Automatic annotation (TrEMBL):
<dbReference type="InterPro" id="IPR034239">
    <property type="entry name" value="M14_CPZ_CPD"/>
</dbReference>
<dbReference type="Pfam" id="PF00246">
    <property type="entry name" value="Peptidase_M14"/>
</dbReference>
<feature type="signal peptide">
    <location>
        <begin position="1"/>
        <end position="19"/>
    </location>
</feature>
<dbReference type="GO" id="GO:0006518">
    <property type="term" value="P:peptide metabolic process"/>
</dbReference>
<dbReference type="GO" id="GO:0016485">
    <property type="term" value="P:protein processing"/>
</dbReference>
<dbReference type="GO" id="GO:0016055">
    <property type="term" value="P:Wnt signaling pathway"/>
</dbReference>
<keyword id="KW-0964">Secreted</keyword>
<feature type="disulfide bond">
    <location>
        <begin position="124"/>
        <end position="148"/>
    </location>
</feature>
<dbReference type="InterPro" id="IPR020067">
    <property type="entry name" value="Frizzled_dom"/>
</dbReference>
<dbReference type="GO" id="GO:0004181">
    <property type="term" value="F:metallocarboxypeptidase activity"/>
</dbReference>
<keyword id="KW-0121">Carboxypeptidase</keyword>
<feature type="active site" description="Proton donor/acceptor">
    <location>
        <position position="474"/>
    </location>
</feature>
<feature type="compositionally biased region" description="Low complexity">
    <location>
        <begin position="593"/>
        <end position="610"/>
    </location>
</feature>
<dbReference type="InterPro" id="IPR000834">
    <property type="entry name" value="Peptidase_M14"/>
</dbReference>
<keyword id="KW-0482">Metalloprotease</keyword>
<keyword id="KW-1015">Disulfide bond</keyword>
<dbReference type="InterPro" id="IPR057247">
    <property type="entry name" value="CARBOXYPEPT_ZN_2"/>
</dbReference>
Length: 658
């Protein structure tokens, strides 16, 4: 059962239901124009009075409108106008503000010098094509008053672009062809050039929170382009955790590449539109998206095309190397150390002999990226199955057969994998014959080595060499899905991607410093019972992903005495608790403890339960109508229709598809 709708939306929907039916009669004549100011072409221009349309690029309109509304009051009472003001919620932000501006161009036509100007038909058509899936998803008909052939004009007839304001600040050559606006998600496959253009354009639109940069080049010389989102793009901020999402490491597994291109546009648009959840995420997290780690392989796969791509062509990079087998195998090293009892599962150095083999430039670029950025959390997006797997990927079985091979952070990795799978509608689907049905009983998550074992994977390397925890997401059973499938893939993965990124705020974070407040870099954060240490970044800050429960946490660094604290992480905590450490140089005794905003507790050891102060500081994410986009089945009405019928006898039937 869907949760009750927000009261404001209910009111608006009630008003919409009560409002009159469309006034414009069916198309007349060959151009299909209604009678209205456009038919006459001369009009009396008046100031734009409509709130919902206050951000259009012009400031005068004329009455009667094309829909034969004769006053501002009549427009405001119309179901068309009310629909425009709730479209953003109904479509969960998709296609907006573009759709709203398009509607405004009809409901409050542009008036200039005593003449009404018409919006361009090609802009309407472009938007309709792009947004139709969003309407289909909620079983809503395309609004009759956005009929492109009836209410819009051609370039020859002197139309204007109602979305020109959204294109401001973009280079002319960066603008999309055929009048497509920049704010909607275009559910197509993107060539390398198109991908680069979308990422650059997105960064330009959101210049205050986004930035593109390259981490290196592929073997064939293509830039490995990353788009970064953060309150202060381009720099690490103290205690701000960093997340990376990587797509298309296997060139023929393309869904992840598209998901990250859409995600970049989505984050930018939602931030600009004021989404509380996205603003909170981007203001507290630095997010790096690398949609294609293997652009050369993609070219090979794309040349065959969706539906024709075999299981393997384009998987490798241009040197024929499988990039997810090309990282240093530290897992064997870990198993060897485990046998000799000098267990160490973190910051294992890269063995010399690794460099004697072939190392792909793409692999090197990732390793360099990891060295220069203190990543906390990561996901690598694949295709070919439907499951989330987590390290180790290399089996501890002596013959390398598949076998459950957990890391010391098994609990946390399970939690991370669940953060993705538990909110993915297909991964949660209980039918056994679905794609990825083998993983049904495990809740669609699995330890990598328990599935199949391989060496040189990126996730094992992340865990054993750096502070970063990486999971692997198999997005679906088709590696190169047809374009028609991309919209649904995005619908299924949007929430999991957001939810996963938000888990970077689980556990604890803080600063390790000396008694003068100077940061101590490379200090170790040890958690008792988990043989995997985290080290501090150059500013002395650290992040330790931890599952709920009580933990003994120790900070230590050469030349200093250890500091031990007990922290308790409540089950529902969503923001990392702050735990700072002040280290005393060896040979000196802790004297009067410094009091200050960073200090808490009264000794080197925090009182038990001391972390309860990190209780839930944030309200749950506001997700209007979230999770309610269930397409109707078998002739029943869509979910939003019941609001209309329960509230009024007047029903805007033109919103119904069937
Ligand atoms: Zn793969």
């Amino acid at each position: 059962m869907p949760p009750p709708p927000p009261p404001l939306l209910l009111l608006l929907l009630a008003a919409l239901a009560a409002a009159a039916r469309p006034r414009c009669p069916l198309a007349r004549g060959t151009t299909g124009d209604c009678h209205g100011p456009w038919a006459a072409d001369s009009a009396t221009c008046v100031d734009m009075p409509l709130r919902t349309c206050s951000d259009v690029a012009y400031n005068q309109t004329a009455f009667p409108t094309l829909l034969e509304h004769r006053s501002r009051e009549a427009v405001e009472a119309s179901s068309e106008y009310i629909l425009l003001s709730v479209l953003h919620h109904l479509l969960e932000g998709q296609c907006n503000p573009d759709l709203r501006l398009l509607g405004c161009a009809v409901l409050a036509p542009r008036c200039e010098g005593g003449r009404v100007r018409r919006p361009c038909r090609h802009v309407c058509e472009g938007l309709r094509e792009a947004c139709q899936p969003a309407f289909d998803a909620i079983d809503m008909a395309w609004p009759y008053f956005l009929d492109c052939s009836r209410y819009f004009a051609s370039v020859e007839e002197g139309c204007y672009d109602p979305l020109e304001k959204l294109r401001e600040g973009l280079d002319v050559e960066e603008a999309l062809p055929s009048g497509l606006p920049p704010t909607f998600l275009h559910f197509t496959h993107h060539s390398y050039a198109q991908m680069v253009r979308v990422l650059r354009r997105t960064a330009a639109r959101c210049a205050h929170i986004a930035k593109t940069y390259s981490i290196g080049r592929s073997f064939n010389g293509k830039e490995l382009l990353v788009i970064e989102f953060s309150a202060r793009p381009g720099q690490h901020e103290l205690m701000e955790p960093e997340v990376k999402l990587i797509g298309n490491i296997h060139g023929n597994e393309v869904a992840g590449r598209e998901m990250l291109i859409y995600l970049a546009q989505y984050l930018c648009t939602e931030y600009l539109l004021g989404s509380a959840r996205i603003q909170r995420l981007l203001n507290t997290t630095r997010i790096h998206l690398l949609p294609s780690m293997n652009p050369d392989g993609y070219e090979v796969a794309a040349a065959e095309g969706a539906g024709y791509n075999g299981w393997t062509s384009g998987r490798q990079n241009a040197q024929n190397l499988d990039l997810n087998r090309n990282f240093p195998d530290l897992t064997s090293e870990y198993y060897r150390l485990a046998e000799s009892r000098s267990v160490r599962s973190d910051h294992i150095p890269i063995p010399q002999h690794y460099w004697w083999g072939k190392v792909a430039p793409e692999t090197k670029a990732i390793m360099k990226w990891m060295r220069t950025t203190p990543f906390v959390l990561s996901a690598s997006l694949h295709g070919g199955d439907l499951v989330v797997s987590y390290p180790f990927d290399f089996s501890k079985h002596p013959q390398e057969e598949k076998m459950f091979s957990p890391t010391p952070d098994e609990k946390m990795f399970k939690l991370l994998a669940r953060a993705y799978a538990d909110v993915h509608p297909m991964m949660m689907d209980r039918s056994e014959n679905r794609c990825g049905g083998n993983f049904l009983k495990r809740g669609s998550i699995i330890n990598g080595a328990d599935w199949y074992s391989f060496t040189g994977g990126m996730s094992d390397f992340n865990y054993l060499h750096s502070n970063c925890f990486e999971i692997t997401v198999e997005l679906g059973c088709v590696k190169f899905p047809p374009e028609e499938a991309l919209y649904t893939l995005w619908q299924h993965n949007k929430e999991p991607l957001l939810n996963f990124m938000e888990t970077v705020h689980r556990g604890i974070k803080g600063v390790v410093m000396d008694k003068f407040g100077k940061p101590v870099k490379n200090a170790r954060i040890v958690v008792k019972g988990i043989r995997h240490d985290i080290t501090t970044a150059p500013d002395g800050d650290y992040w330790r992903l931890l599952p709920p429960g009580s933990h003994i946490v120790i900070a230590q660094a050469p030349g200093y005495s250890k500091v031990i604290k007990k922290v308790t992480i409540p089950a529902r905590m969503k923001r990392a608790g702050r735990v700072d450490f002040i280290l005393q140089p060896l040979g000196t005794r802790p004297k009067q403890l410094l009091l200050g905003p960073r200090r808490s507790g009264s000794g080197l050891r925090d009182p038990p339960g001391g972390a309860s102060r990190y209780g839930e500081p944030e309200e749950p994410g506001q997700e209007p109508l979230g999770g309610r986009r269930q397409p109707s089945v078998g002739g029943s009405k869509p979910w939003w229709w019941s609001y209309f019928t329960s509230l009024s006898e007047h029903k805007p039937r033109w919103l119904l598809k069937y």
